Known about the structure:
- The chain is of the alpha/beta class.
- It contains 25 helices and 30 strands.
- Strands 3-4-6-9-10-11-12-13 form an 8-stranded parallel β-barrel, surrounded by 5 helices.
- The structure holds adenosine-5'-diphosphate (ADP) and iron/sulfur cluster.
- The site of iron/sulfur cluster has 13 residues, from helix 13 and helix 15.
Amino acid sequence: MNKRYEVLFEPVSIGPVTAPNRFYQVPHASGMTEANPRVRAAFRGVKAEGGWGVVSTGAVSIHPSSDDSPLPHGRLWDDNDIASHEMTCDAIHEHGALAAVELWHGGASVMNRTSRITPYSPSGIPWAATHVGFMGNLKPRIMDKQDIKDVLRWQYEGALRSRQAGFDILYVYAGMGYLPYEFLLDDYNRRADDYGGSVANRVRFVRELLDVTKEAAGEKCAVAIRISLEVLRGRLSDNYESEAHEVVSLLSDLPDLWDVKMDASPTDCGSSRFRQEGAHEPTIDFMKQVTDKPVVGVGRFTSPDTMVSQVNRGILDLIGGARASIADPFLPEKIRSGKEDQIRECIGCNLCIASWHDGVPVRCTQNATAGEEWRKSWHPEQFKPAHADENVLVVGGGPAGLEAALVAAKRGYQVTLADGMQQLGGRVTLEARLPGLSAWRRVADYRLHALKQMESVSLYPGSQLEPDDIAEFSDHHVVIATGARWTKSLYSASEVPVGEMEGPSVHTPDDLMAGIVPEAPVLIYDFDNYYMGGVLAENLASKGLKTFYLTPAGHASAWTIMTNEQPFVHAALHKAGVIVLTQSLLLEHDGERARISNIFTGNEECLAVCSVVIVGLRLPNDSLFRRLTSSSDNPEQRNIRSIERVGDCLAPGAIMHAVYSGHSWARNLGCVSTEDNYLRDLPVSINPPGAAIRKFND
Ligand code: ADP
Ligand code: SF4
């Protein structure tokens, strides 16, 4: 290990328990629930194996009045839920790490769509009332004293059940709009009783939650508080520097650990496009001055030097990781063994968060094995040996081809990779040059760095292959990873791509990334609705070109709501001076004017634009594959062992899908495919369903 990093491997006392090092996987959503307990246990367990000293759950609801369905979350509602959490604790403890549970009551931020209990709140004020996903057409109830007592009892019972399951650290969660947070902020807490008004009163509910959790924890478990400080830090306080200072000072040494964060997902889990590593620091940097208890915080830390700096400068005691631990569960172990150059760094794309918004187990761009540890037995660092002493040819060195090559080489195949471009990396080489996307380069960097060190791998950049070139690779397994291209296809009112728009002033993202500068004023027409249209518009406008952005969707880059980016996309477009037009179709363009129509009314208008960039349909670059597999020219004639397409060449999608596709192909080579043969998880329960209720009714 590099001596500089030794400080990261010091143990840290957290109340009655001791973290073996400073790497702390903070609570984060996994999309895994009691419905898939083995998937969940394996996902958390592999992080402990990779060296994270503490591994936490995501939010675990303490009562059906905190029911966030259909979004996935954990539960400890009754004793039936203990067994599945026990599996997680066992998987974490097996590797010497501590297990933490984020006990959670969502208050007014949950809609209790399944339990149908009227949501709880301090003063009847909904959370994010106009935000899709939080809109429930039902105002929360104002909690009376009995409701407060009930929630305290549920927290106590949840803590007892957590203890029974084997957790070492029990959380009180006062962040991100959830119930205790709503008590802390006077925006949501308008109470006239002793739970409202002064900060000392607003803190009372959190203090009582800590008290009951400590009572349940006894001498066995530590009690942590997770708190959002962004808004509180911006509020003046009479006797302290801010309300954040006051809240933390009032509770100072009551919890055994402070876990500090921002107030909403877009700022707390900001994408790399809009937030740098360590972006939380200005909000949480005062913590060590007001508490003697250890402090953990996050900041998409992937650099050990940054981590050491956080500790040495007295900002954090424990280095929190959520996304960093998803992208590389073995990050601590790689630092410990002096292999920090092999860390698979998170790129900050937030597709893991989009998975949660989709309601499914976590998926990751950088780590194709995330969520597949149990279902497919995919270990992030271990690979089944090659089924035979055979060779692989990968055509295309983008994310899919690089991942296929790396996994095949790790399995022991001899790998040759060829790409027509001088620089390997495919689309990420080009896209990483766009505003805010430089971290995406890590997708190629990590893989190329590893491939270049392997003797069994030969890389041939600048080698465009034709079918006849493949003849030289008889006896090889050939994987075609030749990517996709953007088309000039338009979009119809019934939401299908129609004919292409022709003309010298019509461009695609590929043209712009190849260096073409469209004539201004320029219209970006985006029905892809992910990042590309917004990024290109921002890029052109910031170069001084008058830029319109047009989309049939209701927002710019509409799908980026899933990655926490949409508010920032709109702000960035506004700042760059882009004119945003939504809910509209592009009908035609004559080189001087674009005719557009409203998708609802059909009303038409004209925009004076000299060029158009269409960001819509991508089609696979699969001509090489088709020529190689056509009946007149089949692979047997070339003595090719097998031929497959992966990544965008198979089906265009996000980089995450391309990496997964390449990974899956290489894992499955010579094996029974896990594509349709994987383990399906089942819930575990000690009692038959409904036993407790039936007993009560009898
Ligand atoms: P993916 O996301 O699926 O990995 P990319 O578009 O990022 O796809 O990468 C595809 C790569 O394939 C590009 O770098 C491109 O230069 C390369 N490529 C396409 N056709 C050929 C070919 N016939 N021979 C060699 N390389 C090719
Ligand atoms: Fe990081 Fe993207 Fe993976 Fe999430 S999906 S952990 S942001 S690389």
